[in-house]
Amino acid sequence: MPELPEVEALKDFLTDNLVGHEVVRVLPVAISVLKTYDPPVGVFEGSEVVAVHRHGKFLDLEGDGGLRFITHLARAGWLQWKDRLPDGPPRPGKGPLALRVALETGAGFDLTEAGTQKKLAVYIVRDPREVPGIARLGPDPLAADFDEARLAGLLKDERRQLKGALRDQSLIAGVGNAYSDEILHAAKMSPFKLAASLTPEEVQGLYEALRTTLTEAVERSHGLAAGRLKAEKKSGLRVHGRTGEPCPVCGGTIREVSFSDSSLQYCPTCQTGGKPLADRRMSRLLK
User: Coil, strand, or helix at residue 167?
Assistant: First the structure.
């Protein structure tokens, strides 16, 4: 799933390539992608894009008429930029194409989604807060006013494990499965540690890991074309998705905990005092 750094990079890329241009066609291919119907998606046609915004993991194209084209790429969605779109309308079918946006220049982008779980979302609204996912977002961790005290206040009554708390978009906007693993590894904290149990020193360490991890990921992605962002994200991850590989900090073996629809990766030496975390799913498989 694209997370804050990739969506921030997409925002910058689209700012350079969309702002000042007119949207002449919005062509839904998969009806499931449309999450709003009033106003209809076609009313965004004729809009000049005046700005591109990011809200957590949401991309927001602002038109000169006051309408907003907002998308969330979900787990398997992506934005594919084309300097020249194919001639003729796209054909509905079983492929990954969900929606196409065309500019007056002939350029534009496709929104695509792999797999069978169709959760890619597009909204046409007048106010971003009309999108439920945006309305419930917590603070942006890279905002200027997001300081250590703000993080401490968010965590002080959290009875959940750190991994779950960091991924909760209503608590902190933009962090998902991959970067929560990276942040906790940088902070040298167990993903199962209770958020409310952190000492002031641990909050400081988590805050520094959060800001540094996300800032460095944004910097690595800055200036890259949309098509290169996935590869950049994967290459920059130190523990997430690297089960069985050596930890780049201590050389220990990175381990995994599996859940029904996701998994987390961590280094026992760096994060849990050398003790492997319980993985009930794998335990059941081994019985």
Answer: helix
**pLDDT tens column, 34-62:** 999 999 999 999 999 999 999 999 999 99
d(CA 206, CA 133): 25
DSSP 120: -
Omega before 39 within 30 of 0, i.e. cis: yes
Q: Is residue 89 reached through a cis peptide bond, with omega within 30 degrees of 0 on the bond before it?
A: no
pTM: 0.92
- Cα angle, residue 119 at apex, residues 113 and 122 outer, rounded to 5°: 85
pLDDT the model gives residue 164: 96
- pLDDT per residue over 159-186, tens digit each? 999 999 999 999 999 999 999 999 999 9
What is d(CA 92, CA 71) in angstroms, rounded to the nearest whole number? 20
Helix axes 200-221 and 4-18, enclosed angle (nearest 10): 40
- Token duo for residue 253: 């073996």
Q: How far apart are CA 267 and CA 190, in angstroms?
A: 9
Tell me the torsion sign for CA atoms 214, 219, 223, 227. Answer: negative
Residue 192: which of 219, 215, 160, 216 has the closest Cα? 160
H-helix or E-strand spanning residue 206: helix 200-221
pLDDT of 284: 40
Six token digits for residue 222? 């800055």
User: With a cut of 50, which residues of the chain have pLDDT below it?
Assistant: 282-287
Cα 6 to its chain centre, rounded Å, is 7
Alpha-carbon span 78 to 86, nearest angstrom = 18
**Residue 169: closest CA among 206, 140, 209, 130:** 140
Structure tokens that stand for 287 in this block: 């019985």
Cβ(147)–Cβ(139) under 8 Å? no
Provide the pLDDT for residue 283: 42
